[in-house]
Amino acid sequence: MSDTISGFGFVVINQKGSHVKLQRKDGRRTITTIVPTLSELGPGTLHGALKLAEVDNDAF
Question: Is it the case that residue 29 has pLDDT exceeding 80?
Fold first, then answer.
């Protein structure tokens, strides 16, 4: 599994059940986040996933 999520540089690392693990390299760091594969996320879930991914809300 190595699909790139366009625009943010994340790569799908793993999927377990209804969640996907995404990862991107940012210089010397590796940023990892886990996102549910629902067709629509609640605002709190979306905000939490963006925070873990270190993606600015305005960029999304």
Answer: yes
Do residues 55 and 8 touch, judged by C-beta distance below 8 A? yes
**Confidence at residue 13, expressed as pLDDT on a 0 to 100 scale:** 92
Can you read off the two tokens belonging to residue 12?
A: 């799908």
State yes or no: pLDDT of 17 exceeds 60: yes
Q: What are the extents of the domains in the chain?
A: 4-52
- Placement of tokens 């540089």 in the chain: 9
Tokens of 48: 């939490």
φ/ψ region of 54 (left if φ > 0, alpha if ψ in -120 to 50, else beta) reads left
Under 8 Å between Cβ of 22 and 33: yes
Overall pTM surpassing 0.85 (yes/no): no
User: Given CA atoms 30, 38, 55, 6 in this order, what sign does their dihedral have?
Assistant: positive
Residue with tokens 């305005």: 58
